Amino acid sequence: MPILLEGLLTALGVGLLIGLVRERRRNDPQSGPSAAGLRTHALAATAAATAWHLDPRAFLVLFATGGALIAVSYRRTAESDVGLTGEFALVSTMLLGALAVDSTALAAGLGVVTAILLHLRSELHHLGREVITEAEVHDGLLLAAAALIVLPLLPRNAVDPWGVLVPAALWKLVVLVMAAGVTGQVVLRLVGARVGLPVAGFFAGFASSTVATASYGQRAKDDPPLVPYAASAAILANLSTLMLLAAVLASGSATVLRAAVWPLVAAGCTLLAGASAGFLDGREQPTDLPSSLQPHAFKLTHALALAAFVALVLVVSAMLSGTIGGHGALAAATIAGMVDLQGAALAVGQLAETGRIAVVEAMWGLVLLLAGSATVKSVLAYGSGGRAYGRRVTLALGSSVAAAALAAWWANA
Questions:
Q1: Are 93 and 13 in contact (CB under 8 A)?
Q2: Residue 81 has pLDDT above 80, yes or no
């Protein structure tokens, strides 16, 4: 009985919540007549929950009866209100009422979402018709197709003789580039370029600083006034990647992390200073959106080019790792760090944990990883964003590597 009572009360609450939103709509002079209000939705939800508890066949009879009444109501109001929102809202209330008997939490959550969608009627219409452009709809659909259709169909096993080219992993980079572009476009619209791009860049770095560097470079090339902010975004993306690297080391090799803590701190502080310098350089520029906001959030050809570049680096790394002697594993990890910094850092940590290399060598190995990663991202910065953007990013990354090397030398002096 307590479980049944909880389901019935949840159904009643969902009906009252949705009915309240529909009841207030009657006071809107721009809205047409609405046959179902507060009491109708509450009764429909409670009746549906009761019928579902008694027998699913009873619920089917109730649902068919409700559908017939909704059809009659629509015929009476169709001339003044051609929409179907009210009718589908009542159908949703009945379905949620039945769901509340078996899953109260899910029904309550979906009820709140339904009420929010109904309440934000004007805002959603404004967003879909006036705020979002046709090009942005195109970009959103392309991103959804790439992530939800193409990605699940690609092989997740290597397809090359060296075992490094995984189509699903490479396509995931393409999806990340597209997602970074969409995120940047949204943030630009919400808070402007001066604050929006650096903040978006910092969080994008937790996914891939390589992707962020190339993506914001393309944005800087398309709109030169954005260069200081885009460069700050790319630098902050590398800072968040460095933080993620420390977290990975903490979970896999705390010994190496303790040995490399000062080089990592020095590199992080240098990156933060470089991002701040780029942010201040653009202080004389307008803080609102640039006048030439790019029509598309990303360029598919740019994303594909980045994936091809990563594939080339992986193949070259695999070919070289088999020919390098001595500390070949460390050299191979350094080369791999040009693409996957966290994975390479974890590999270096494991080499130290297993005794294949000394802890000091692992610390210098991390410095080499930072240098290799900085080299690749500097090339990407110049190639994607041009000279001004590339110079800013390269200076910050190079300075961070130099700071890490000095800190490593000081720690072992």
A1: no
A2: no
First vs last Cα of the chain: how many Å apart? 74
**How many whole angstroms separate alpha carbon 25 and alpha carbon 12?**
20
Chain mean position to CA 211: 12
Residues 6+ apart with CB under 8 A from 54: none
Alpha helices in 261-358 (DSSP H): 261-281, 300-321, 328-336, 341-353
**What values do phi and psi take at 223, rounded to 5?**
-140, 90
* Same-domain check for residues 123 and 165: no
Cβ-based neighbour number of residue 159 at 10 Å:
11
Among 225, 229, 217, 239, residue whose Cα is nearest residue 387: 217
Locate 91 and state its tokens: 């159908």
Cβ neighbours of 16 (radius 10 Å) = 19
Write the pLDDT tens digit of every residue in 307-326: 776 677 667 656 665 565 44
Task: Tell me the two tokens of residue 120.
Answer: 């934000």
Where is the domain boundary, 71, 95, 128?
128
Choose the final residue of a domain: 104, 128, 152: 128
145-197, pLDDT tens digit by residue? 998 999 999 998 888 887 768 888 788 878 877 776 777 667 666 666 567 77
292, 381: one domain: yes
Q: Measured between alpha carbons, how far is 410 from 261 in angstroms, rounded to an integer?
A: 12
Whether 78 and 109 map to the same domain: the answer is yes
Q: Which domain holds residue 19?
A: 2-128
**111 and 156 within one domain:** no
Contacts of 297 (CB under 8 A, 6+ apart): 136, 139, 178, 181, 182, 184, 185
Output the CA torsion sign for 223, 228, 232, 235.
Answer: positive
Cα 357 to Cα 98, 221, 263, 329: the distances in Å are 63, 43, 19, 10
